[in-house]
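Posting for a labmate who doesn't have an account.
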Amino acid sequence: MSDHLGEDQRDELLREVAARRERTVARITALEHDFDDIVEASSDAVRDDEHDPEGATIAFERAQVSALLADARGQLTALDVAAERLAGPDAGRCERCGGAIAHERLLARPASTRCVGCAGR
């Protein structure tokens, strides 16, 4: 199946993926720093979470940052896969029907693997 993306479109998409990847790496770094701060703060706190009014808050913050960190790492993986796909012969092709994924859709969601029609099914 021939590539439907023009060279300019592919370059634009690769730049977009690289920019999003850079922002995501910065987000991961910041979240890791936040997580480390929470862990450090909780190590100085009273160990009895059951009776410590701050214990539940610290545990919630740690869980929240952990979830955000997992999401950011998942986004980073998806962006890396998108960059690989853009470098390959099936760039911009729907994994389900083989049709073209609109360039605008790929700009908005570079990790998209399906065209709008297949994504809606």
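Reply:
Got it, the structure tokens are right above this. Residues 7-88 form one domain.
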